[in-house]
Amino acid sequence: MIQSESKIAFGRSSHLLSLHPLLKPPRRPAPTPPVDFPLPPAENPICNHPGAPEDMSYIPFPPLSPEIFAVDLFGLHLAVRWYALAYIVGLLLGWKLIARALRQPRLWSGPAPMTAEQLENLFTWVIFGVILGGRLGYVLFYELSSYMAEPAQILRVWEGGMSFHGGFAGVVIAGLWFCRRQGISALATGDLFAMVAPIGIGLGRLANFINAELWGRPTDMPWGVAFPGEAAQTCAGALTICARHPSQIYEALLEGLLLGLVLFWGIWRRGWMHRPGQAMGVFVAGYGLARFAVEFFRQPDMQFITPGNPLGLAWQIGGWGLTQGQALSLPMIAAGLWFVLRARRA
Q1: Domain boundaries, position 62
Q2: Which residues lie across from 317 on neighbouring strands?
Q3: Which of 170, 268, 307, 316 has the smallest count of CB within 10 Å of its CB?
């Protein structure tokens, strides 16, 4: 399965390869039959290889389908997918929580920054920003040459290919445009959306796991997951089932649960809304830090991996480099810290 975003390591390639077992240069894999879905060792032909160890520690991928249910109607396959449901539930919960916050006078040093009607109109633009920004961000940041060769493929959103950083930029642009037209405080609006963004992010990462996509690099840790599909089971030198880091779960916990708890505590217990921009800064910097860290465990996009660049570094200078995800996260960290400092000095 083709990964949707860039993943892996930071630092000097040769140094990391020598220090970390996950960053060893890949060896030419021995020819093995393709695995569509991990089977128990006794039933899987790969595990019966003469050199395969008898005891393997990994978690089999659960029997989950990307589709909640589907109906074939007039030759069309209509399906409700977990990923779409994650978007819908995240947006609805976010809308309800923001509406509740607007009705809490104690959260604000003055009147609430917008009315309920303005919030509904704003969410319409936010939805467009998420979809258009996420898609265009993926095209520009990860697969520009491929889509320039076949521009019509850009419209095929249902085939996958969304970028968080692009979606974030789309929401920022849509929000700034709306706030300027309505005379609403952009910083206070950013704080409101920062409060609920981890909900959608966490649900989206869980949907990534259900879809068996955006998996991590190979690992021998006992919580490694044997994801289905030939791409997930193609590991350098692997003679047995290939277990990988469940990086989607790492991100759901860090970018979703942990970051969400910090923001809820700061907003509802510490009065962060009285300093416009502080909650937004914490979210932007917190997401950037979490994403930067998880990139060490995520599988890189195939287009970045070459024999001379086994780590999949997208930006390199003298052997040191960053993945594409890390490079896009650094400006978020810097901008988030600036907003936090600005809010505290105000």
Answers
A1: 11-81+211-345
A2: 320
A3: 307
